[in-house]
Amino acid sequence: MILDAARAAASRLFSPEFRSVFLKTLGLTLLALLALWVGLESLLEWLAWPWLQTLLPGLPSWAGWLSAIIAGIVLAVGMALLIAPVTAIVAGLFLDDVAEVVERTDYPNDPPGRAVPALHSLVLAIKFFGVVVLGNIVALLLLLVPGINIAAFFIVNGYLLGREFFEFAAMRFRPEAEAKALRRENTGTVFLAGLVIALFLAVPLLNLLTPLFAAAMMVHLHKAVSAREAVRP
User: Fold this and answer.
1) How many domains does the chain have?
2) With contact defined as beta carbons under 8 Å apart, do 218 and 208 qualify?
3) Which residues form a coiled coil (predicted)?
4) Of 75, 16, 70, nearest to 41 (Cα)?
5) One digit per residue, pLDDT tens: the chain, 233 residues?
């Protein structure tokens, strides 16, 4: 079921129906990451370098270049850790667009879902941003522990991304409380699907498509889970 959902989602990523959503998602994700980079770099130049000159007067000119290189490395690591929360926010903005395309093209005989209210989507996206940032801070601390650092990345992001994307997809057809209950009843399935999303997220450049892939995959998974629930005694 999970592999079928992932395969169906991947097959639609570059289809004509996804082109508009893809361009909006990619553009906003790149813009957000660029804005974060410029903002953090400016903040470091404004605060860190003058403070360093005051603390250690008479620094040679090459110290400025060395500081810039170190700051660039720190920022690059920071951007890598922020990909998950940034893509989560973008997904919150465009999940309904993706879901509508998948439902219309792959499930034309089923009743269409209802778009999650914009304000509610924004609140959930902001809430999830905080959760993912916290989860990745924990994962960063676990990087210091040999043997579990990579596993920590996949477990943390697999759980968080799987939970949020599945609930978003489910809330197109169910009240929020019922969507959360369905996710809890299928915790193992949702977590394994989240691991697939985390694996997708770990691939450079391809990870910018995470919102499209995750949203489409969870629409398929929710359809499969709902069909299974319907035939249970």
Assistant:
1) 1
2) no
3) none
4) 75
5) 899 999 998 888 888 877 787 777 777 777 877 887 777 777 766 666 665 556 555 555 555 555 556 666 766 666 666 666 676 677 667 778 888 999 998 999 998 888 877 777 777 667 666 666 666 666 666 666 666 667 777 888 888 888 888 988 999 999 989 999 999 999 999 999 999 988 887 777 777 777 788 889 999 999 999 988 877 76
Whether the CB-CB separation of 103 and 113 falls below 8 Å is answered with yes
**Terminal-to-terminal C-alpha distance of the chain:** 20
Per-residue pLDDT of 38-57, as tens digits, reads 777 777 666 666 655 565 55
DSSP secondary structure code for residue 108 in this structure: T
Give CA–CA dist 203/191, Å, rounded.
19
What are the tokens at 65? 């270049």
**What does the alpha-carbon distance between residue 41 and residue 33 come to, in Å, rounded to a whole number?**
12
In this structure, the dihedral spanned by the alpha carbons of residues 36, 26, 214 and 210, taken in order and rounded to 10 degrees, is -60
Structure-derived torsion over alpha carbons of residues 173, 111, 117, 94, reported in degrees to the nearest 10:
100
Residue 130's domain comprises 2-231
List the one residue out of 170, 152, 148 whose CA is nearest residue 160.
Answer: 152
